[in-house]
Amino acid sequence: MSLVAPGSGVIRMPPVSVCHQVSTIVRARTLGIDAHLVETASFDELFSDLLRFLPQTADKLASLTGTARPRLATAKLRPSTGAVPAIRMNALAVTSGPALCRIVDCAIGGDNEIEEAIAKAGVDIIVHRARDGVLAFRRDNDIRKALEPFGIKAFDHHPLSSRRLIKEGGERALVRDALFRAIAGQPGLTLERRGNRVRLRPVPGEVKPSIFNSDSAKPVDIISGTVPKTDVVWSEACGLCVDYRLE
Fold it and tell me: What value does the mean pLDDT of the chain take?
């Protein structure tokens, strides 16, 4: 490394430990040299920054064109040239949500036991376990039918505070599942769960590629197919997730 001493040139230093470098700076200061230890990622980055502030080079650097690195770049949509789709990302703002849900105090266990109880009762409800009880959406009679075998002690309303939706928990899981099921309720869509991942897949034959295209851009040629030279079947799909942000 090199130790830069203003007005005294550059002092060459071999690779040494930090303690040795500090002692060298102390010795330089005793000789009247204004020396400092400057941390930097690389030699090139250090001197590119120094050039902006030194009187001898600042004006020359300002006269050069294209010295500022642009932070934004325009990316043109690439035309479709193959049979394998690309990954695209987008987001929709959810401007409002439910304010209340049901909360049930009973002896049922976690989400796995809850799913078994719902399947056994044959009802269509959205339920998640929280610290204070079991949170649920849908008809009261269906909720009672699924949870009655576990001894319902209390059946009340529970406020869905926006503060409780920031972190993953029963409230956020309940609202998320309700949103995903509402989206999947549209014609031609199928909701698939693989572990913690949720995907929305179009039903072949019911959803046409033209729905994804416009007059100026046509990124989708086909909805599903087979990867060339394999027997792997692929389909356009949308991975769903929820991010929460307080204004």
Answer: 78
- Its pTM stands at 0.56
State how far the Cα of 103 lies from the Cα of 139, in Å rounded to an integer: 13
Strand partners, 11: 3
Q: Are 215 and 136 in contact (CB under 8 A)?
A: no
The 10s digit of each residue's pLDDT in 47-102 is 777 777 777 776 776 666 555 555 566 666 666 555 555 566 677 778 888 899 99
Structure-token match 């899981």, residue found:
173
Q: Tens digits of per-residue pLDDT, 126-167?
A: 999 988 899 999 999 999 999 999 999 999 999 988 877 887
User: What residue type is assigned to position 215 of the chain?
Assistant: D
CA atoms within 13 A on the CB side of 193: 6
- How many angstroms separate the Cα of 225 from the Cα of each of 71, 153, 213, 235? 38, 52, 18, 6
In what order do the strands lie in the sheet containing 238-240?
189-194, 197-202, 238-240
Beta bridge partners of 25: none
Between CA 60 and CA 57 the distance in angstroms is 5
Phi/psi-derived region of residue 195, left when phi > 0, alpha when psi is between -120 and 50, beta in every other case = left
Q: How far apart are CA 39 and CA 9, in angstroms?
A: 19
Determine the distance from the C-alpha atom of residue 173 to the mean position of all C-alpha atoms in its chain, rounded to a whole number. 16
